[in-house]
Fold this sequence. Notes:
The structure is a single chain. The chain is mainly alpha-helical. It has one domain (2-120). It has six helices and five strands; from the N terminus they run E-H-H-E-E-E-H-E-H-H-H. The strands form two sheets. It has a three-stranded mixed β-sheet. Strands 3-4 form a two-stranded antiparallel sheet. A hairpin with a 2-residue loop joins strand 3 (58-60) and strand 4 (63-64). 26% of the residues are buried. Iron/sulfur cluster is lined by residues 48, 51-52, 55, 57-58, 64, 66, 70. It holds the Pfam family DUF1284. This is DUF1284 domain-containing protein.
Amino acid sequence: MKLRPHHLMCTQGYSGKGYNDDFIKNMDYITRALRCDKNILIELVFSTDDICSSCPNMLGANLCNTNNKVKSIDDKMVKYFNLEEKVYNYNEIVNFIKENITEEIMDDICGNCNWYSISSCKKSMCCK
Ligand code: SF4
């Protein structure tokens, strides 16, 4: 499964809400797979991913209709957590982020996202 950097957090905070039925169905499938299998591997990509592929905002390969915003969020994830384009154990990299994130860092990364106050992102990532 391909995931872009900020979707490491979205897949933890997702609480069943999304852009449309197709997006929600895909997100349900992906988050169930990621959360249920402790050994699941993901390929981190600095581009559109398997969540974007069912999103009405995806305009093409590596192109979201809020590209500047989502690229900025991805860049912050990469810088704060030294992420690379490679294969990771999903649970290990998420746990690493949870161990190193603070509420201030999360506000800096996700503060401009429309879903931040709607979903349970901060509760999922910052409750240690
Ligand atoms: S809004 Fe953009 S970054 Fe987010 S899932 Fe849709 S296409 Fe991907």
